[in-house]
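Worked problem 6 (solution included).
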Amino acid sequence: MRLHLVRNPLGEVVGRTLLHHNPAFDDRLGADVQLFGLTEFADASVLARLVGEIETQARSAGRDALLGPVGLLPNQTGGVITSGFDERGFVDSPWNPPTYPAAYASLGFSPVFEGQTWICDDIGELDPDLTFRFDEERWDAEGLEVHHASRFRLAKQLPVLRGMLNAAFAQLDYYTQISAAELADATDGLDFLLDEALVLWLTRRDEPVAFVLVVPDISEFVMARDGRLGMRDQLALLATRGRYRRDAILIIKGTVPHAQGQGYLTALSRELLRGLRVGGYRTLRSTFVGTDNPASAAQYVRMGGRPLHGTTFYRRDLT
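Solution. The predicted structure is:
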């Protein structure tokens, strides 16, 4: 990875980007793609300078296209919001000023992997049994069992979640298989924040078939600390974490392919809603759902949710 900065005549940083490359993602797209992320800029002219440097590096490496902003891949985090600019951002989801989409468009970028984040307000008022109906007889008939994550056993539970995650999302165009090391890195510190009632998976006769991962929303704490989460900040969060049990973020959910369409995520959603109510949560936000995936958004519709931000990534082919 390589960090690039743009400075104004006073020496102040007015733009930045980080260049990286992933051969597995190239194989997925069938192209040699220059990825860029952590991209911020004061105006379109600064973005033009950044893109000029990205393109120079990409051409020197023989790349076919530019794609971003991603960190490190589209299935991890990144993107640009295209609407909902008055709504605050949150952990694991992008936020940017309203000038960003036009700036990318002016430089010949096209939107790809478009989606929406969601928000469900007043979830404490919902009846889980009415919101997510599931036939009770199926529990015994199909050998179904709900499991909860444990902060003390999380390292041993991650392989189960990774197997379902990779299987459930393999059909998406942008998804690149996550290795054990990558998942461990992505969830580093999760045990510190974990609300065990909000990380669930379902087994059918001991076979994992569906999962959902929700965390307390500490976004406002992170914003107040300018994004720092060093040891001193973590101790401060630990001392005040009771304040961050009103909002929650659904990071990811899914069902393994051969079990899709059988209502298993509905069953898990009911258990999740019960856990949110018991925990006193009032609002649930979700990371982006592709606009071509209405089945995934249906969960939020059932909970009275609404789209929060439009999201997209940008691609520009090199000729």
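Discussion: The two ends are 24 Å apart (CA to CA).
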